[in-house]
Amino acid sequence: MRVEKIRRSEPYFYLAPTIILMVILLIIPIIMVVRYSFYDNVIINKHPQFIGFENFAKVFHNKSFSAAAKNTLIFVGGSVIVHLFIGMTFAMLLNTKYLSAKTKALFRVIFALPWMFTASVIAILWKMLLDPHGVVNYLLEIFNLNSTQVEWLASRDFALLSVTIINIWAGYPFYMVSILAGLQGIPSDLYESSAIDGASAVQHFFRITIPQLKPILISLLMLDFVWTLQQFALIWMTTGGGPIHSTEMLSTFIYKLGFSKYQYSQASASAVILLVICSIVAFFYVRHQRGQE
Amino acid sequence: MVGGKSGYIKVLVVTLLMIGTLFSGFPILWMVLNSFKPNSEIFAWPPTWISKNFLVDAYVEIFKNPEKIRFFVNSYFIAFTAVILTLAISILASYSFSRFKFRGKNVINTIIVSVQAVPPITLLIPYLSLIVTMKLYNTYGALILTYLLFTLPYAILMMTGYLNTLPKDLDEAVMMDGGSRFRALWTVLVPVSVPGLVSVGMYTFMQSWNEYLFALALTKTNEYRTVPVGISLLMGQHAYEWNQMMAMSVLGSLPVLLLFLFFQRYFIAGMTSGAVKH
Amino acid sequence: MNPFKLDHLKALNKTAFSILFIASIMIALVGCSGSSSDNGATATQNQTETAANDSNTGGKGSKKDITLEFQQWWGVELPDGVLQQIVDGFTAQTGVKIKLLSNPYADTKTQIAAGAAAGTMADVVGLDGSWVYDFAKHESIANLTDLMKADGYDDSQLSDQIRVDGNTYMIPVVNFAYPMYVNLDIVKEAGVESIPKTWSEFKEATKKISTSTGKAGWAIPLSTESPSGIQNNFMSWLWASGGSMLKDGKPALTNNADLGATVAFVKGLFDSGVVAKGSNSMKEADMVGEFTNGRVAFMTDSLAHLTLIKKEAPQLNFDIIPVPVKDGFAGKSGMDVANWGIGIAENSKYKAEAMKFVEYLMSPEVNAKLAVYANAFPGNSKAEPDYSAADPLFLKAYDIYKTCYAVNEFTGLPTSEELMRSFDEQLQLYLGGDTSSATDMLAETQNIWQDAFK
Predict the structure, then answer these.
(1) For residue C145, is pLDDT > 90?
(2) Minimum distance, in Å, between the CA of residue B102 and any CA atom of chain C
(3) Strands, DSSP E only, in C229-384?
């Protein structure tokens, strides 16, 4: 009997450090944030009152919130799709039989370079590149592609595009390395037998490569979705959410509410909304994983 | 026919390689070039490529300043400690997920996946209060714990995937010989999981090395601060020390680059089995 | 070769490992404050003192044990070592030690804001006029009126005090004027004969500059990340022409002829294409960079930048002039000022000592010295700074300053930074052609501002 009990509790024993850490340092702050979201102005008010869903109503009626939600959708969607595309292209490129092992190793490092930098460095770097007097405009000019100095980060037409490009640049190596790893894990006899059947390269790609990579692609998309959703430093340090609200994201919106307007309750309510969205995504992800087993 | 076709493909491959190099490498090349320019030349129009006043001042300035060296020492200490703790804790948790069926497994798994979705910025205030209550404010401990927490979910996800690829016979063989599960884990599974551990370790190192917001908010004095905060300290209210920022960015990313160079074989192997097959 | 010394792990049996493991968790959870001192060999003494301060063990000892933390951005902007030298003077007088926590402006702000929420604010903090109201309302900075009274301090020598609900929460230590900088070479190149004194002259001059030299006539930083361009580069036009954006301390943006004219004037500058590109994401530092690189003819900027500009571009031929005024205005001009203010944390254990330190910084000699080093004007009206070694341009600015009155209407307003930001956004909408008229823009901004004053 006793042995049985120990056996049953064994998995929990292994999980204990993780659970203890997460409960103390993550679940407690999350509960605090959820609680804040139901009270009127916490932290500033010494005796906050319970006000139900009023904060949520205020957030949903905030015009900046809908702008932020829309931008976030474009930003996240654009980043994730292009990440996947570039990551896949580069990974395939580095997996072709036309390159020697040394060449592959060299380009693997070059293509992975953007990954080595912290968000604040990336922000500073691109602010410098995309300055109206920066080198990007200069290159466009000498190659006769454009003669006016484009305000990449300062005009409402280009700002969202610019920050999305910056984020794409910063994030694709993660896809590339993961997909590369996945490609190397596909047994080569699959391709060989398919080649005997006379399948073309394109058919290879859709019949073998994609299905084989599917689990890793789904993991990547899910992780990238949640990571891009919370991207803050990059946006804050390049545009601050402006001009007007053209690059306002949910993360910058929450930051401004909390640290500039001192509306911690509304900021918390927005955070809870984000948490719910992410939890739904996570739920489907886990269910999908279970389906795989 | 066939030769002609593969010729086209070769041209395509080389073109793509060039475009890719330009896209990923040019911004970084520009960063390196700018770190050797005097500050006033950074935005010169037309831009200068290699400055006539080629300067290593920015680097000298950093190496001369013990406070800036300290940022690097701190970053190493914090990142390495976080890596070791993350590895230890995540391998235990992953072992549990990979080898046991137990009540609440799915719930715990969902929670672990979804907590990484919480935007850290929203937790800043309650988290800071918590750290202050635990008397960890302005210590290495605060940062190490934070990074441990940030990287654990992904580490567990990846390690579980990796352990799932290892046949169960491996650990069962040890248990047949009368060894405990624990022994099976540490004597058999851990040694063969090196690629997985390297992947997780690299990921943790990069996250800890690069994090900025909490590194700033959880510390008060420069004694405990890390490289990203050090870089941002060069942005004054009135002026940017562009060249020094660039120099420090170059120096700050070197360790990550070296780690990647050194471990890339392991790293990719680890991701192959880890991230791919859940 | 194995990076994680896994071979060693193999040697451990289960029990030994569990102990090791639990110990490592314990270290991580509790003891890391201890582990830090092992690694902090260079600054051990400082650390022990700070630790003593944090845990309040030194409270009952003699004054020699007291260390006050002084969090500010001034140390970064002053010449190296000057602030340390000044606070050492205080330690020599009183025995109370001062630990400087000097970080750039933006980081100081983040830290003070987070500190206000979590109770980790340093004893004495550098403040910007735009933060005061909110921190005072949160009760995170102390009521200085009470502290001054308790100490019997004569506050008549202070040139200004920032009050919230009638009580002082911030004392401006030094003031920075925002005159106009002009690049004389560009002006000459464009053939502009006289330096503009009025708006219409300014408009004409910048037009001439941009058509004949291709350079920008004027620059304004409108980045919403740090919207201070609204006070320093936009409202400075209004104030210079004697206008005001407030009435009885409340927003008065509508039915305000002066403000309407200012908006129209700035819109006119944008429409005639004389404003430097990228203004919507430009920050103050970017604007200074443009000026230093000789690409902008005029900018309104802090005198604090004088040394920096001279250092970065020694050959730049520039001058300092009064901000041009609205045509026909003959009254006294207001000159925009920013200040380094000081306050005391409500959670400080040593408020009385902190007040002594504030008094020390405000004492005529120390205040004068600080002003000289910072290229600023003293906050103590009795201070007589010795500017004899100062740059001639600084002296010229000082003369201009003396003919004006100092003004910054954003100081001490509720969510001051947010007010600037919303004004900034509405201004950008108007400049971009989304809002049809200046009246609409100001009416909309007035609505937003009024919410903050409720």
Answers:
(1) yes
(2) 22
(3) 246-247, 250-251, 296-300, 318-321, 334-344, 377-378
